[in-house]
Design brief:
With about 230 residues, this protein is mostly helical. It is built from 9 helices and 2 strands. The protein has a two-stranded antiparallel ribbon with strand order 1-2. The longest helix is centred in the middle third of the chain and has 32 residues, at about 65-95.
Length: about 230
Amino acid sequence: MMDRHREAAANSIALWWVALAAALIPLVTTHTTYLVSALEGHVSWCIPYWDSCTSISRTGRQGTSYFIFKGAMIPAAVAGALFWLLNGRWLRQLGAQGASVAWLTWLGFGACVGLVIYTLVLGHIGETYFAIRRVGVILYFSLTYIAQLLISSRLRSIAHWYPQGQRLLWLCELTLAIGILSVILQGVVPALYDDIENAFEWTFALLINLHALWVAVLWRRSDFRARLWLVSRP
């Protein structure tokens, strides 16, 4: 049995690095473009999660960061699409059932399309480009959140993975609570919301990437792999 397991591992590729890439590429990119933009004087030095001094978009609009952002975020969208495609297969192999598992792929693809749209128009000036960028941001954040909510609930339906699914669901609930708070502030005290809107954006992005990072850890823990083989031998 041990020899069979070793043979299977030798003829397969661990997939957790795909989830790791989907989580870390956007996370590292946004912080890198902020640092580069600050060094080049395009944005001020601060802690954006607290000081709300700049938006994520602004860090990638000018100078060297413009090319870093576009050059990294499009591969991030590709990694994200592959991540959501594989998530459905991972859940089914764990024993998850239901039509919602199939929706993961489509929701993830839609989110990644939104990220590509947002990335491509970033840096272009005009009301049309602003509207297109806004649509891309909404698609990315909203569809990613729904997909993360689904994967968390599906994990909770599997007895062995219930604790991990519950923890991921708590993370989703935290994201939702912050989103509700932002809506309330925008409606009740719009002046205050305008001052801290960027901090909400940075926080949303961080929580979404942390969820993907957590899933990457679970992929590694479950030894999720892709097997390689020849259909026929010469």
